[in-house]
Amino acid sequence: MEMLLVDKPAGITSHDVVAVVRRSLRVRKAGHAGTLDPFATGLLVLGIGRATRLLEYLAGLDKEYLATARLGVATDSQDPEGSVTAEDDCWRSLDTDRIRTAAAAMVGRLAQSPPVYSAVKVGGVPAHRRVRRGEAVELPAREVTVHALEVLAVDLPEVRFRAACSSGTYVRSLAVELGGRLGTGCHLTALRRTRVGGFDVRDAAPLEAVRGGEVPARSRVDAVPALAHLPRVVVEPGEAAMLATGKRVPKGAPDCGVAVFALPGDRLVAVGAVRDGVLEPRKVFHRA
Known about the structure:
Blueprint: E1 2-8, H1 14-25, E2 30-32, E3 41-48, E4 63-71, E5 73-75, E6 84-87, H2 96-104, E7 108-112, E8 121-122, E9 125-126, H3 127-132, E10 142-155, E11 158-165, H4 171-181, E12 186-196, E13 199-200, E14 205-206, H5 207-211, E15 220-222, H6 223-226, E16 232-234, H7 237-244, E17 249-250, E18 256-263, E19 267-275, E20 278-284
Parallel strand pairs: 1-14, 3-12, 16-18
Antiparallel strand pairs: 1-3, 1-15, 2-3, 4-11, 4-12, 5-6, 7-10, 8-9, 10-11, 12-13, 17-20, 18-19, 19-20
């Protein structure tokens, strides 16, 4: 039971990547911990087999991206795949210092409205589907956290930057926000996800390698190390047997909402909660 790190190429969906993994590795079940837009590249964290049950614990991890924004042109989708909605020359009066200052001011908590061309569901239907059907869609703003927004290079009208942010942050919207603060339209022309929590795209397997069934060892991550961001409680074999049958186990461990219960040697037993020092299994992976 393991996670697989894949470097998604541009031009395909995250679902396409999952389909390639299923076919190439001959597994029935696979899923990912966070989608990437078709034009984007970079790190996808996939669960294989029973590990798909762990993906929900990875979805909320912070993420890091490299991106290129094009000032002076706005699109309806905030990316290169949309239709141009406005153009201006206001970017011509900008300089690197002003752009860096505007980017630095965006670090912290932001109220961000997701793009209408997104997978955010409205009444159970992805917003982008409703928009393409001609429906008017308005998505409420939600709070996100930008840990870092570093301008790496300025070659006007393009700006290359690194963004480290909380899960659920749309880098497309960050680009539009940056443009707005600079008094010009803006859209994202390139996006690459480089980190998800402790996972790094440098460890990810190219999709072509996966197609050929050649996945480097560094691209495979066992379940317990993949959940390193969660508290871990090491259990004894007898306790593992009780947890495997769904029983609560008194342990005297510190209380926490979500914890990993594992045998020595990183052998996953269950994921659950600790309440009043008692282990309460929620998802069991160990066989008694």
